[in-house]
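Q: I'm building a small set of examples for a reading group on sequence design. Run inverse folding on the following structure and report the sequence directly after it, with nothing in between.
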C-alpha cells in the first residue's frame, strides 16, 4: 500500500497495518468489523468501563457491586464435586476473606496461587458458601518486589471484534491513540463554537472516552450524555447534515422540465370529484405546483396520516406533467396498493382523456410489450405500477415526474432508479415521495435535509375517530359475537392475523386455520380470505368483493396494511397485536374509521406482555394521532428501525443517537449554514471523516 500523504495522516486516514503487530490476518479481522484506519480505532469507543483505579477493602465489599480487591492467598482448595473447581481464599488488612472460584483453569494457574502470594482481583462478589465469592474474576498475581501501582484512568471495555481478544484489542486501540496528533491538528470545528458550548476538542474528547480519569462521571458516560460524547455526536450529526446538503446541491445542479401548464385538467378534476379538497390538501398541492413550475428538480416528501388523501394530490401533480405534454409515473410497494391506485387514478383521470397504463411483475407477454411500447412512445401519459417500473427495459419518452408512494418501503436507491428513468443530458425528473408513516420532526430534520417536507395534517371531514380496546386472547369468543352483530347491521369487519418472523408459508397456514374457524363459527356470514401467497388476481378479486360489500368479514394477513380503502368496514380485530410495531399497528388501524359510522379496533394479545409491548398497546389505545405515535415509536425503538436502515443509513451513526441528541440538531443546522457558506473545504473534510466512501456511493 502506498504511503499516505502527510495531510491525510493527520486526519487518521492511515491503514491499520501501519501499527506494530497488525499483519494481514489481524487486519482482516478488524476490517470485518469495519475497522480499517487509525481513525476507525479512535472511534471504536468503549461500551463499558472498569474501575481499577482503587482497591476496595474486602470487608467493605457488597454483593453485586463490582470492585477491585487485593489480598494474600490464605488457602487453596482444588476439588471435584460435580465438576473441577478451584477455590482460592484471599485475605487483606481489613481481616476479611474472599473466595475466588474457578471452574476452568490450568494447572499452571493453580501453581501461581501459593499461600502468601499477593493477588489483585476484579469482579462482582456474590454470596457463596463461605461468605462472599467472585466467580472467574480477572486477576493478576503480583511479583514480590512489584509495587502494583494503580492506574489513574478507568479501563475501557470495547465492543468485541471476532478473533481478537479483549487484551489485544485494548492494546491496539491504545497504540492508535498514541498516534493521535498533538494539539489541534485534528480539529475541524471552529474554536468559538466549542468554547461557546463548553465542549472539549476532538483530541480531548477521544482521550476522555478511551481513558476516562478516575473521577469521571461514569453514569453519564454509560448513558452517552458526557460532554465528550456530545462533542463527537455533534460533529457526526454535522457531517451527516452536510452530506445530505451536498447531495441536494448536486441534485440542484441538474435542470428539470418546468411543468406549469395543466391545460385546465386540474380544474376539471376538482369539478368532477365528489368531495372538496381539505385546506391541507390545497396547501400541499400549491407547494407542489410552485416547485414543479421551476426548471430545477423538485424533491418533496408529502407526509399525511392514513386516509388524509394523498392520492388525489398525487393525481393533480401528475396532471401538471401531462398537461405540459410529458409523462408521470407512480410506484407503490405492493401490488395490492398499486392496483388500488390504478383504480382511483383511472376513475379520476381517464374521463379527462388521460391514458393510464399499468405495469407490475405479473403483467407479461403481449400486455407487457404493449405497456413498454406505450411508455417508450409517450402514448401512456401516466404509468402506475410496482417495482417492475424500475426494471431494465422500461423506457419512458420523457418522464417528468416520478411519484413514489409509501417511500419507507423502498430504499433510496430504488427511488433514484425510478428517477433515472427520466434522466437525460443533465435533466432529471421531479420527484414526489409520499408516506403515511409520519416522521417525527427531529428525525425529519436529520434524515431529510435533502428534501422538502409537506404535511397533509388534516383528515377529510366526516371521519369518526376509531375506538381502540386492548383484550387478552381469552376474549375471542365475545368478539365473534360482536362481529356477528356488526355484520347483521350491514357493516363489514377485518380480522387480521399476524405471525412475525415466520415465512409467508407459515403465516398463510395460520391465517387459513383462523379463516376456517371463523367460517365455521359464523355460518351466516360471507367470510373472505387474503394472504401474501395468493395469486395476485385472486387476491384482488377478494378485495374487490369486500369493497363491493359482497364479503362481510375479511380474514387477512398484514398484506392489507397499506392503502386498502373500504369505508363501510368499521370493525377491525388484530390478533397477536403485541407482535407488531407501532407504525404497523397504526397503518392497519387506519383501514377502519374511513366512513361515517363509529369504528372500533380490537387489539388481541397473547399474555404475558413484555414491557415494550405493553407500552405499544397502551399508546395505540390512548391516541390516534400519527405524529404522537411516531414520536413514541422513535422513543421505543430508536431511529434506525423506524426509518429502516435501507432508507437513510441513519442506523449507521457511530456515536450520535437521534432520540438522545435531537436537541443538538438546530445548532447543527446553523453551523452547517456557516460552514457551507464560509468554509466549504472544512465541510468536505467533515463529511469525509465521518461518512467517507458511503457518501460518495449515495451521491453516485
Ligand atoms: P392516503 O393518504 O391514506 O393515501 P387516500 O388518498 O387513499 O388516503 O384517500 C383516502 C380516501 O379519502 C379515498 O377514498 C379518497 O378518495 C378520499 N378522499 C381524499 N380526499 C378527500 C376529501 N378532501 N374529502 C373526502 N374524501 C377524500
Ligand atoms: Mg395512500
Amino acid at each position: 500500500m502506498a504511503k499516505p500523504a502527510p495531510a491525510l495522516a493527520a486526519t487518521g486516514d492511515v491503514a491499520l497495518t501501519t501499527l506494530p503487530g497488525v499483519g494481514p490476518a489481524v487486519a482482516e479481522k478488524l476490517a470485518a468489523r469495519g475497522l480499517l484506519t487509525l481513525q476507525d480505532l479512535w472511534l471504536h469507543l468503549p461500551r463499558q468501563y472498569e474501575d481499577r483505579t482503587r482497591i476496595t477493602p474486602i470487608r467493605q465489599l457488597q454483593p453485586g457491586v463490582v470492585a477491585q480487591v487485593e489480598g494474600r492467598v490464605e488457602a487453596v482448595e482444588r476439588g471435584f464435586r460435580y465438576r473441577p473447581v478451584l477455590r482460592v481464599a484471599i485475605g487483606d488488612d481489613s481481616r476479611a476473606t474472599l473466595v475466588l472460584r474457578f471452574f476452568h483453569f490450568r494447572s499452571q494457574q493453580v501453581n501461581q496461587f501459593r499461600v502468601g502470594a499477593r493477588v489483585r482481583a476484579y469482579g462482582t462478589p456474590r454470596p457463596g458458601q463461605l461468605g462472599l465469592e467472585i466467580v472467574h474474576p480477572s486477576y493478576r498475581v503480583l511479583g514480590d518486589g512489584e509495587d502494583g501501582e494503580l492506574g489513574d484512568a478507568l479501563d475501557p471495555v470495547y465492543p468485541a471484534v471476532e478473533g481478537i481478544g479483549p487484551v489485544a484489542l485494548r492494546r491496539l486501540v491504545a497504540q492508535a491513540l498514541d498516534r493521535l496528533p498533538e494539539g489541534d491538528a485534528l480539529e475541524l470545528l471552529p474554536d468559538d463554537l466549542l468554547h461557546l458550548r463548553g465542549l472539549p476538542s476532538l483530541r480531548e474528547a477521544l482521550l476522555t472516552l478511551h481513558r476516562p480519569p478516575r473521577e469521571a462521571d461514569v453514569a453519564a458516560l454509560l448513558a452517552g450524555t458526557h460532554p465528550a460524547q456530545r462533542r463527537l455526536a455533534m460533529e457526526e450529526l454535522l457531517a451527516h447534515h452536510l452530506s445530505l446538503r451536498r447531495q441536494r446541491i448536486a441534485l440542484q445542479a441538474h435542470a428539470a422540465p418546468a411543468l406549469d401548464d395543466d391545460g385546465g385538467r386540474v380544474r376539471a378534476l376538482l369539478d368532477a370529484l365528489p368531495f372538496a379538497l381539505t385546506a391541507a390538501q390545497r396547501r400541499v398541492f400549491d407547494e407542489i405546483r410552485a416547485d414543479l413550475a421551476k426548471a430545477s428538480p423538485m424533491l418533496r416528501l408529502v407526509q399525511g396520516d392514513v386516509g388524509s388523501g394523498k392520492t388525489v394530490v398525487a393525481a393533480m401533480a401528475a396532471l401538471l406533467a401531462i398537461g405540459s405534454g410529458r409523462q408521470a409515473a407512480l410506484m407503490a410497494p405492493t401490488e395490492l396498493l398499486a392496483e388500488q391506485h390504478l383504480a382511483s387514478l383511472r376513475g379520476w383521470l381517464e374521463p379527462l382523456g388521460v391514458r393510464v397504463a399499468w405495469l407490475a411483475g405479473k403483467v407479461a407477454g403481449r400486455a407487457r410489450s404493449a405497456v413498454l411500447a406505450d411508455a417508450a412512445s409517450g402514448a401512456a401519459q401516466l404509468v402506475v405500477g410496482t417495482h417492475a417500473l424500475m426494471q431494465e427495459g422500461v423506457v419512458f419518452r420523457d418522464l417528468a415526474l416520478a411519484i413514489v408512494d409509501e417511500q419507507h418501503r423502498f430504499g433510496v436507491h430504488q427511488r433514484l432508479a425510478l428517477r433515472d428513468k427520466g434522466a437525460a443530458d443533465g435533466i432529471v425528473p421531479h420527484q414526489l415521495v409520499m408516506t403515511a408513516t409520519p416522521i417525527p420532526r427531529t428525525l425529519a430534520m436529520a434524515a431529510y435535509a435533502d428534501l422538502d417536507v409537506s404535511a397533509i395534517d388534516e383528515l377529510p371531514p366526516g371521519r369518526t375517530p376509531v375506538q381502540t380496546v386492548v383484550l387478552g386472547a381469552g376474549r375471542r369468543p365475545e368478539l365473534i359475537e360482536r362481529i356477528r352483530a356488526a355484520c347483521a347491521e350491514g357493516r363489514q369487519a377485518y380480522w387480521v392475523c399476524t405471525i412475525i418472523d415466520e415465512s409467508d408459508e407459515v403465516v398463510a397456514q395460520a391465517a387459513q386455520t383462523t379463516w376456517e374457524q371463523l367460517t365455521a363459527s359464523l355460518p351466516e356470514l360471507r367470510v373472505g380470505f387474503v394472504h401474501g401467497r395468493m395469486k395476485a388476481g385472486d387476491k384482488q378479486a377478494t378485495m374487490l368483493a369486500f369493497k363491493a360489500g359482497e364479503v362481510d368479514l375479511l380474514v387477512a394477513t398484514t398484506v392489507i396494511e397499506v392503502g386498502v380503502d373500504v369505508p363501510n368496514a368499521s370493525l377491525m380485530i388484530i390478533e397477536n397485536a403485541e407482535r407488531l410495531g407501532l407504525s404497523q399497528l397504526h397503518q392497519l388501524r387506519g383501514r377502519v374509521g374511513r366512513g361515517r359510522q363509529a369504528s372500533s379496533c380490537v387489539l388481541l394479545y397473547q399474555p404475558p406482555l413484555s414491557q415494550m409491548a405493553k407500552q405499544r398497546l397502551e399508546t395505540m389505545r390512548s391516541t390516534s394521532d400519527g405524529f404522537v405515535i411516531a414520536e413514541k415509536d422513535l422513543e421505543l425503538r430508536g431511529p434506525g428501525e423506524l426509518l429502516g436502515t435501507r432508507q437513510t443509513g441513519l442506523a449507521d451513526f457511530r456515536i450520535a443517537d437521534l432520540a438522545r441528541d435531537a436537541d443538538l440538531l438546530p445548532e447543527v443546522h446553523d453551523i452547517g449554514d456557516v460552514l457551507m457558506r464560509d468554509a466549504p473545504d472544512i465541510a468536505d473534510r467533515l463529511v469525509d471523516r465521518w461518512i467517507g466512501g458511503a457518501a460518495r456511493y449515495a451521491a453516485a
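The first strand starts at residue 48 and ends at 50.
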